[in-house]
Amino acid sequence: MAQFGYKGPRGVAAALLMPPSQSFQGPPEAQARNAQLEKEVQRLQGLLAAERAKGDELKEWDLKLKEKERALNQRDEDTEVKRLNAQYVELSARYLQQQQEIEEYKADIEAWEEEVEQEKARAQAAQAEAAALRRKVEELDRELAAYKAGSGKRPQKKKRGREPSSPPRHGPDTADDNAEPPPAQPTPPEPNPAADEVFAAAKPPTLNGSLSVPVLRQFLTQAGADAELRFCTEKEELIALAGQRVNAWHVRRAAACSRLPLARGDRALFWLDPGSAFSKHGPLAKAFRELCLRLHPDKNPGDALATPAFQYLQEAHERMKKAARA
């Protein structure tokens, strides 16, 4: 090997790295071998470069793949977020609807409870009226007993519009001779803006024995029962009469509300504070249901103010519903 100039592995490596012009010179066989080695080195270098290029390409594809995975994950997250948001909106709407239904149910319960309380008040008023009637019957019994024990003659009452020389009536005495004429239909009060403001803001009292006589008299005056009020001397009689005039009180309060400007009168009719927010459910619906029962003409036969009051109630309710939607 020494004759071909072999100098060990380092010498071969140095010879491979040398340019062809400076490579090892020797016999033709050695030169051919050297050329073959050079070609092999070039081939290996080409393969190495190709592998490096493939490695770089693989790295680039790996980066692209990771980027696409991140984009896909982000898109999935956005889709999930949108789905959760849509589900949240749906559940919120369902919750609000259920809350409205619950509020309406509570309003119905409160209305029924109030109706029960009013029925109790009417029952107490009826009991008070029955007690007053019993006292009147006892008083009449005492007068009858005194009459029978006395002269036996019934005192004659002067009749209006009958002359003294008019012939007496024939036939037995009847209760119609002493029957009092029915009270006249109360006329609408004169317009009084200040009184209308106070009356429109009033709430109906609970009719029981805890009310004072002045409060009962004020209630009956507002209800248009001045004529009947003159015949009541006992508190029980006032309570009994007030129980009969509850609807009339509501009718006249609605009339007072109708005489106010619409913005104030409509709110006062449904007991809504001025400027407060409200919806078509809850207090508005509850007050409307109660007032429909109180103001309906069928519940107030013979009351000339009931029909216009009920019509005003319907119109005010429509205006308030439009205001709630605005």
TrEMBL record:
<dbReference type="InterPro" id="IPR001623">
    <property type="entry name" value="DnaJ_domain"/>
</dbReference>
<feature type="domain" description="J">
    <location>
        <begin position="265"/>
        <end position="325"/>
    </location>
</feature>
<feature type="region of interest" description="Disordered">
    <location>
        <begin position="145"/>
        <end position="196"/>
    </location>
</feature>
<feature type="region of interest" description="Disordered">
    <location>
        <begin position="116"/>
        <end position="135"/>
    </location>
</feature>
<dbReference type="InterPro" id="IPR036869">
    <property type="entry name" value="J_dom_sf"/>
</dbReference>
<feature type="compositionally biased region" description="Pro residues">
    <location>
        <begin position="180"/>
        <end position="192"/>
    </location>
</feature>
<dbReference type="Pfam" id="PF00226">
    <property type="entry name" value="DnaJ"/>
</dbReference>
<protein>
    <recommendedName>
        <fullName>J domain-containing protein</fullName>
    </recommendedName>
</protein>
